[in-house]
Amino acid sequence: MIVTGALISLISLQMETSVFVTTMASMIGIGVAVDYSLFILARYREERAAGRGQDDARAEALSTSGLAVSFSGLAVIVSLAGLWMVAFKGKAAAPGRGSEGPSISDSLAPRGSRGGGGYFWKRWTENVMARPWVAALGASAVLLFLAIPVLSLTTGTEALGQFPKGSDVRVGNELASEQLDGGTDPVSAAKRRAARTFAG
Fold first, then answer.
1. Whose CA is closest to 105, among 95, 84, 88, 81?
2. Are 170 and 198 in contact (CB under 8 A)?
3. Which end of the chain is flanked by fewer CB atoms within 10 Å, N or C?
4. 164 in Cβ contact with 158 (< 8 Å)
5. CA triple 6-13-29, angle to 5 deg
6. This prediction's pTM
7. Domain chopping of the chain, boundaries
8. Taking a C-beta distance cutoff of 8 angstroms, is the pair 104, 94 a contact?
9. pLDDT < 70 positions in the chain
10. Residue 116 — φ and ψ, nearest 5°?
11. Are residues 1 and 9 in contact, defined by beta-carbon separation less than 8 angstroms?
């Protein structure tokens, strides 16, 4: 993070940078550093628990988890570099139709479907836009069907349920609830007091 912050500072002296650069670098750097460090640390502890010495456990952790972390880190670097190139090149990276040449979507479409309306997502979009109410009702029906298990959910605080029925804590709480005509938790007590205040 110190090296990255220094590089960002030097770059900002030479060119205009977004205010989010430091935030994004810190977020990704800290997240990746903690994540990868825990991988290696967990493997090191496993080797120590298996009876290996400190040096042997460290060497085994770095040769296994450390190698995986290296490849994963390189993958992150390459992916972020790809995003940077698209943002840096702008329209040159994705030319549109016209004199600049075919668009990326046309180049990715299968042969025989370019310009003919046969591309799957184009047909899908056209069908949805042609019948919006049918698409909305169909999507709602699917979502409601998937949400059916929610109807059987029961919610509540079951802190007292952890105690046996004859427990002093549970019995005392039940007696207090009967006397107070409601729950004994602070929220319920505050509601009853507020109701009495406004009623009076």
1. 95
2. no
3. C
4. no
5. 30
6. 0.39
7. 2-92, 118-155, 160-199
8. yes
9. 88-118, 155-162, 180-189, 192, 199-200
10. -105, 0
11. no
